[in-house]
Amino acid sequence: MIVRSMLLLALLLPLATPNPAFASPAFRRVWERTDYPVQQGRGAHAWIWGPGPFTAGIQEGFLRDAQTSRLVQYFDKGRMEINDPSGDPRNPWFVTSGLLTRDMIDGRVQIGNNDFVALPPATIPVAGDPGGGFPTYADLGPYVRAQPRYGPGDAVAERLTPQGRVPAPEFANLAATRIVQVVNGYGVPRAFWEFLTGSGTAYRDGRFVQATPLFDWLYIAGYPIADAFWVRVPVAGVPRDVMVQPFERRVLTYNPANPSRFQVEMGNVGRHYHRWVYELPFAGGQQALITAPAPNSVVGSPLVVQGFERGIAFEAAIGVRLRTAAGQVLASTYTMVWQPDIGIPGPFSTTLVFSEPDTTTPGTVEIVVESPADGAEQIIASQPVRIGGVDNDLARVVALAREDLAARTGIWPERIGIRSTEDVVWPDGSLGCPAPGQGYIQVLTPGFQIVLEAAGQPYDYRADRRGALLLCQDRRPLAPIGAPLSLPARGAVSTLPLHVEARLEQRGEPVTLRLALENGQTLSVTVTPLTGPDGAGLLLSSLWPPPEAGRINTQRAIVQIRDRRERLLAGRLVTILGPDDPLTRPVDLYWLAGEQLRVEQRRVPRTLQIGAAALEQLLWGPPPGLGLSTAIPTPAEVLSYPGRQPSWGARVRLRSLVIRDGVATADFSAELRAYGGGAARVGAIRQQIERTLRQFPTVREVRIAIEGQTEGVLEP
User: Are residues 11 and 130 in the same domain?
Assistant: First the structure.
């Protein structure tokens, strides 16, 4: 903790060190080509990168194939990156130049080839002195990718002001402003084009050489993304007229008052970007910043939550949850901050899945960290939102239909096409697809008809505006295929073993529980459902990976239940976390080996309620094939217990776990009474629960309750 605290002291200038070394020989080679001659007084051009890197190497989060980070290093004028370390270092594009200007204007931080985290556009001046004000990168938003205004031969004779573009005829006759090239639809004035394509002294293979061109302009600057414009900015405190043009990777400026060598320069986009991401989000002492969803916006499920965390989270893990104004937690999860190193800020992005309330209600998105010492929670950021009620959100209904069809067909949702969507007012509650012999409310029912396509076949989905969904097949309604499943829930993120609870029409007839992983592997087990309290078939089973399956990494999967004739009875999309995933953590579970306790370590998804998560795993029973057992009543024992009550279910459930002042009170459902008596069994149950909870440093004492009562429970 002392080392961690020292790191946090230097947080406002992350990874900025005096005269840092090049993080890669490849970075040095790229810099030496253009900027070593400038440093040695041999070059007649301005800096392309700057005097050298101003940060150490940084492993920034970046999703690409199996990679989760990439090596980058910041310079005054830009950022060098190695996106594919297995590539050929001799390839000119082995090191790339970051698209920093684009991202600061658009307000997004790239964390993958097609993945971004939102961040408000940079309010940093693009030219002139650091405190010069207008225009900032955010100010350029309305002009980027706008209709081009200049063609060959035109002069850049407009000034950009806070009120918009205004004529500036005083620049019309300057040769430097004349458009000589059109790239990406935008005219490039002579001063900039000659700088980008001109010759100069380069350093290559240990020698100074004359190079034509000095550098690859597309590699260094990228494409122009807006017209050039004039602006008045302070330069060393003196107001100057400067021509500016933003490119994807750089900003070019032309100051006619400068000596000829420095009339065209590259803006300090590397410095600006580093400040935008690593410093500004935490101005004023903020510990975290939520950038999505927007404040007071109406949100629905699934909800993407993005932002930046300052680096205080233990092991870079943060909790994200959605809470109603009344205090009800609708969804919570753990996610990882893509930190370059311990104590350094980084972005995060995760998705919350929840059931929408009937009506729109105020709520709050919260970012929570947990103390590694005592497990105490601290809310480090919150964002007010409005949680949308079940309404006419067509996109949400389409997503539900795609998930359902994926679970039925084994075709991933993104490969399922949409033939048509239509707002419909159904004549009654059957949604135009009545079941034979069933009565329906005779009232006009607004809703949707969505026709999806998978493997060339159409699928006709119907929905109302309160979330009811059905598949109309052969003029018969089919309920969502996930409906029989209580576990896993919709959108579930789980480790293995995967616990499954389903209510089926079949009972006494074996079914196959199957997990089809995205990598092509399939795990399966044959199970005979129990007869539930209501007479229906009840599947309560866990799907364990066999030893020959090897290590299973994080990926999507489809869980299905099929009968002996391979008819699909239930199915659902889930995400399986691999044992090395940082979103998991180990817990110890205690089982019986004869009369002795034996510990099993199992990885579970990170959660804000880790004690409850451990107990839930305990209630599902030990792994097969290791000779371990549990004293806690199994579903078969609960269902056959002579003293069971009509209100009992089929298995023991955890009602709540409260830890206060070191005392953990675990409250279980009435089914725990099915242990049947006996001092040895009572003692074994207590030991299993107590030892499992005492692994957590916040627990000094354990109390066991049944239906809220602690007196007279678990007696021999």
Answer: yes
Beta-carbon contacts of residue 398 (< 8 Å; ≥ 6 apart):
418, 421, 450
Strand partners, 573: 558
Has residue 127 been placed in a domain? yes
Strand partners, 9: none
Residue keyed to tokens 């240990």:
206
Domain match, 50 and 160 both: yes
Examine the domain organization and report whether 541 and 601 are in the same domain: no
Select from 441, 498, 459, 711 the least CA-distant residue to 623: 498
Residue whose C-alpha is closest to residue 104's, from 283, 277, 226: 277
Q: How would you list the strands of the sheet with 663-668, edge to edge?
A: 654-660, 663-668, 701-706
The strand pair at 186-189 and 179-183 is best described as antiparallel
595 shares its domain with 542: no
Q: Give the per-residue pLDDT at 581.
A: 85
Q: Is the peptide bond before 135 cis (omega within 30 degrees of 0)?
A: yes
Please give the tally of structural domains in the chain. Answer: 5
How far is the C-alpha of 336 from the C-alpha of 716, rounded, in Å?
A: 46
In the numeric block, the tokens 């992005």 are attached to 349
Domain assignment of residue 715, yes or no:
no
Query: In b/e form, how buried is each residue of 628-644, taking b as 16+ CB within 10 angstroms?
Result: bebbbbbbebbbebeeb
342-366 residue pLDDT tens: 889 999 999 998 887 877 899 999 9
Decide if 622 is inside a domain: yes
Residue type, 261: R
Picking from 639, 631, 616, 630, the residue whose alpha carbon sits closest to that of residue 529 is 639
Asked which of 525, 548, 576 is the last residue of a domain, the reply is 576
Residue 156 lies in a domain: yes
Distance CA 180, CA 155 (A): 10
Q: Which of 580, 587, 627 is nearest to 603 (CA)?
A: 587
Same domain (yes/no): 250, 144: yes
In the predicted model, residues of the chain with pLDDT beneath 70 are 1-18, 65-66, 372-375, 390-392
Residue 298 backbone dihedrals phi, psi, to 5 degrees? -85, 125
Instruction: Look up the domain containing 111 and give its range.
Output: 4-277
* pLDDT tens digits along 3-28: 233 233 333 344 555 579 999 999 99
Which of 91-97's residues contact partners 24+ apart within 8 Å by CB, and which partners? Answer: 92/216, 92/219, 93/219, 94/26, 95/24, 95/26, 95/27, 95/29, 95/30, 96/219, 97/219, 97/220, 97/222, 97/249, 97/250
Give how far the C-alpha of residue 470 lies from the chain's centroid of Cα atoms, to the nearest Å. Answer: 30
Question: Are 65 and 173 members of one domain?
Answer: yes
Identity of the amino acid at 517? L
Beta strands in 76-136 (DSSP E): 78-82, 96-97, 108-112, 115-118
Q: Are 377 and 370 in contact (CB under 8 A)?
A: yes
Q: How far is the CA of 255 from the CAs of 240, 252, 263, in angstroms?
A: 8, 10, 5
Instruction: Enter the pTM of the model.
Output: 0.70
